[in-house]
Each structure stands twice: as C-alpha cells, then as structure tokens.
C-alpha cells in the first residue's frame, strides 16, 4: 500500500529563492510512484528554467497557456482535471495573495482555481513578509477556503538573518504531505487501529554521567511506527534513546530506563490493538544508582558493579493481555530459532520477529535486516535481506493477515 503510487501530483512553483528545493521534492514524489506535472509562474521561471522541470518530470511544463500549439484542450483545465493532489511549493507571499483572492491571472493560478483536488500550500518567504498582517490574513483565507497550509520553519533565511518563513527541507515536506494524504484516505489496512510500538535502547544509570546501554539504533521500531502510520493506524511510539527523527503523524513518548519504558507500555497497553516491542530493553540495571559521580579509588582497585534483573515486560503483559495482538523481537547471536521459539511460547506472543544479529547487514544500527517470523503452530517464515522499512511492512502485513482485521471507521 503506497499513498503516492500512480498518484497525479501537480506541483505549482512560484518565484522564491527556495524554488530549487521543489526539484528535490518532485524527485522524491516520483521515487514513491507519483506522476508529477509542474506549473510555473513567470517569476519562478526566473529562478529555475522550465527545461529543468520538464527533464526531471518527463512531462510538459505549464507556463503560458496562451502559447500552446495543441488545440485539443484548454491547458489549465486539462491539468486541473488530471490532478489528484496539488502542492504549491514554494508558495510566495504574492502567490498566496493571488490564491486567497481567487485570481486566475496566469496559467498557475488558473489551474489552482480550476482544480477540485486537495491543495497543499508550503509558504516560503522573508520573515517580515510572513509576519505581515496581509500575508497572515491571506493564509487564514486559504485555510477557510479548504486549503491545507504548512507552517514555515524558524531558521536562517537567504537574507542572512534568522526568522520564521524558511521552507522546511523536502524530506520534511514529503512526510507532512504523506501524513495529510493518509488522513484523507478513509480506508487503509490499519485504519481505526491503535498501534503501540517501542524502539531504541534503554539506559540504566550508574551515576549522573554514566549508564549501561546497548547497540540498538531504534531504526527497526521507528520503521514499524512509520509503516503502521502509512497503513492508517493511530500510532504511539515509546522511544528509548535514539538519534532518529519522529515519523510524521506519530505520537512519540520519550523514555530513558527499562522501568520508564515498562510504565509507559503498561499505561498504553490496554487501549492498543497491536503492540510491537522492538525496543532493546536492558535485562539488568545497577542495584544502586550513585547520586554523585563514581570516583576512581585511591588504590586503583577493581570496581565491581552489582546488577539486578529488570522487569520482563512481555512476560508481565502476557497476564494482562485481552484482545491485543502482541509482537516481540528476539535478537540472538546463537541458537536463533530455538531461543526464539522458547520466547514465543513462554511469553504468549502472537508473533515473534527473530534476527541473528551476528550476521552482516542484520539487526542493530544498519538500515537493513533479515528476520524470521514465528507464529504459534505455524512454520517459520524467513524474509530476504531487505530495508528495515520493507521488513516493517512485512511484519504488519502478516499481522493484518493473521488477525483478519478489516479497516474500521476512524
Ligand atoms: C532573489 C529574489 C528572491 C525572492 N524570494 C522570495 C521568497 O522566498 N518568497 C517570496 O514570497 N518572494 C520572494 N521574492 C519576491 C517574488 O519573486 C515576487 O514577489 C514575485 O512577484 C513573485 O511572483 P509569483 O508569486 O508570481 O511567482 C524574491 C525575489 C527575488 C528577486
């Protein structure tokens, strides 16, 4: 299930310094399966030539509708009718003003006025232009007219000073657009389902500056959260330490230790339909956390740390489980299947995702994974080595197939 596959996206580019970023966004949309056509304002063509957009999209670019040599259709109406999704990026103060007032004084604004497709506006301008009451009034008008507007970022502007008005990076714009489109799609495989995901490696404090942790990057859990969101779920991600950016549309609850993670999971477990425990939760924590930094002893004697077991969250949840489908992960370096099978049964899991982290390209930190899916009373299913996002999709597709879930009303 891909939001952008075969989607007709019209990108309207106006004359701002950020217009070069539209090229990157267009590439990313096309990479995800969209067909993109571009309408340029005359001022946009001062920044980037129509030839660049035409070559990138392999589609004719609409600039001046009065010079067309094709008499079979009216340019702006044909493009408006073709459009499934329209994105105004970057949207200058001038374009925003024209659209807010219903003007159709060039091919771009005529197309915007003529289409009934959802319209997304990505403003980008100088901070004073953005803060100007006229621009703010025009943006409110766009929202009142049913367009969806992205708030610009706070940051360094082309003028050399910082302020609000900067266009977010294409990756962030794509994430926002994708999430908006998911919200508009009434029936996706996980629509109406609440999915709880844990990710990252927990940290068990030894003193104020040191902790025990593990090599988990959080990438697998974040991929599951993003994939579940793309499949329409309402997703809560309980995140132990990672350096990853929150997936769009996902509620992220940061935690540090195994105990904090356990409390957060228990709080949210009852209301969820699916729990995916992808976090690497420490099995042990120090018996004692020093309030002050542990100093080297004068005699340089060895330091012994005493550790005690943390709560086994999955085991605890096995007793609380009612309707929830529970997925666990097992990262092993030996006896993968035997250890995983034992974990599946002893913790009453519905699905266990086992990975042999001693293999190259598998498990911690990398962007790829190869896993074996274990379910009670079924033959194990081993995937190919593939991206963590593809593994996430496979896990969730398996869950949907196993549960027989049909999309629910939101
Ligand atoms: C170098 C340069 C950079 C500009 N950058 C922006 C910008 O980022 N945002 C904006 O709203 N206007 C910007 N402008 C002003 C617009 O180009 C101007 O308002 C123009 O009339 C916009 O026309 P359009 O909206 O039809 O493309 C810039 C102008 C120049 C000369």
* Widest sheet: strand ordering: 12-11-8-13-16-17-19-20
Given the C-alpha coordinates, what overall shape results?
Answer: elongated
Label the structural class. alpha/beta
What CATH architecture of the largest domain would you give?
A: 3-Layer(aba) Sandwich
Major sheet description: 8 strands, mixed
Report the span from N to C terminus.
Answer: 18 Å
CATH class of the largest domain: Alpha Beta
Task: Return residue spans where pLDDT drops below 50 for at least 5 consecutive residues.
Answer: none
Bound molecules: flavin mononucleotide
Helix share bin: 25-40%
CATH superfamily of the largest domain: CoaB-like
Work out the count of structural domains.
2
Instruction: Indicate the proportion of strand residues.
Output: 15-25%
Provide the gyration radius in Å. Answer: 26 Å
State the oligomer: single chain
How many separate helices?
14
Nutshell version of this structure?
InterPro entries: CoaB-like_sf (IPR035929), CoaBC (IPR005252), DNA/pantothenate-metab_flavo_C (IPR007085), Flavin_trans-like (IPR036551), Flavoprotein (IPR003382). The chain is an alpha/beta fold and 410 residues long.
